[in-house]
Amino acid sequence: MGNFFKSVSVGAMMLLNIIVAALYLACSFAPFLHPKTWWFTGFLGLFFPFIFLLLLLFLMFWIFVRIKRAFFSLLVMLAGFSAVGNHISFKRGDDFSQEKQPGSIRFMGWNLRHFIPFDESMFKPDRDKHLQLILDQVKKYQPDVICFQEFVSMPAEGKKDPMHYLEHVLGYKYHQFAGEDIFDTKQYSGIAIFSRLPIARGGVIPFSPASPDANAENTVFADVIDGADTLRIYAVHFQSFGFGAREYGVIDDVKAKKDSSVIQSKQLIKKMRNTFYWHGVQSDFIVNEIASSPYPTFVMGDLNDVPGSYTYSVVRGDRKDAFLEKGTGLGATFTSSSSFMLQLLPTLRIDYIFHPEQYEALQFTQGGKRLSDHSFLVSDIRKK
């Protein structure tokens, strides 16, 4: 009888191992599947690190129980291991030096959430204290080129306008901005590129086709002059999921194992499915635009998608990910102020700095916790 239960237990563990292995392989190959057709692959990247950890635990389990079966987990792990390298940086994080190395350019990227504090529910983009805390981070790191998403310019505020402060106080004489009036308030929200290096040319690229939800910001590009070189910088912000209190409530109810409406859950999944679809469309559009660039291209911004996604794979292309070069761990950049469950999820790395292969990242850091619902990214990058 004891051998029977042992055999059943081992068989059950192997079955679970096979299920986890199948999910791991599905996650590994998800970046090659277009979400227009394979929309469910968008969910897989969110949980890939956990699935990898489970597969690793199965590998260790079989080593001590039945070593021959460990080869199954090992072979599966190796088959999809390139995906692990996109999610996790195994490098040791060095202290970030405020002093730049000669010849390097310091880049900063940040989704500012319209200057709304992480714990602030009211829309108050003119909060002087909070705005100054954000600008102090820019002053601290002294980046040469900045890409802001959800940046707000308030021309009527005069010297209190963050656009004025960045240009006249912090010395960013060159900028490219794609702002739209917010509810006819004379406050303009959009993507902005600020530079201390000269901008020879810039422009705005509206997504085409445009999503009916219209919560993706127009892409902005700038041709930045660095000595004898011209670099094209693309600042992007893909469609967000547009979650409100109701959607976050459904997510937290699942976490708390509360009875939640099946209809609400279906609506949540439908909204996510729609967003994944548009991520694929927007990725293809931007990549086509980037292909026409006559200069080495840097892509920075909020993709609203994780490294295990089609979006990440296509937009990154053959460029390098500054976080993977010099960051450490999972590097989550987003946390929700409305969902307790998402605050605990450590896999939401959705903001990126991509640079050409002929350049190298010398150092990388991120911070600004609770100044926005996104972390800022800072990296020093130099031509090889």
Verbal overview:
The chain is of the alpha+beta class. It has 2 domains: 86 residues, no CATH class; 280 residues, Deoxyribonuclease I, Chain A (4-Layer Sandwich). Helices cover 39% and strands 23% of the residues. It is built from 11 helices and 12 strands. A 6-stranded mixed sheet has the order 3-4-2-1-12-11. Strands 5-6-7-8-10-9 form a 6-stranded mixed sheet. Helix 5 links the parallel strand 1 and strand 2. Helix 1 runs antiparallel to helix 2 and helix 8 runs parallel beside helix 9. The longest helix is centred in the C-terminal third of the chain and has 29 residues. About 5% of the residues have low confidence.
CATH hierarchy, class of the largest domain: Alpha Beta
CATH structural fold name of the largest domain: Deoxyribonuclease I, Chain A
Report the principal-axis shape.
Answer: elongated
CATH superfamily of the largest domain: Endonuclease/exonuclease/phosphatase
Q: Provide the residue-averaged pLDDT.
A: 86
The SSE order reads HHHHEHEHEEEEEHHEHEHHEEE
Distance between the termini: 67 Å
User: How many domains make up the 3D coordinates?
Assistant: 2
Task: Specify the number of helices.
Answer: 11
User: How large is the radius of gyration?
Assistant: 22 Å
Helix percent band = 25-40%
Low-confidence stretches: 243-263
- Strand arrangement in the largest pleated sheet: 3-4-2-1-12-11
| CATH architecture classification of the largest domain | 4-Layer Sandwich
Query: Structural class of the helices, strands and pairings?
Result: alpha+beta
Please give the number of β-strands: 12
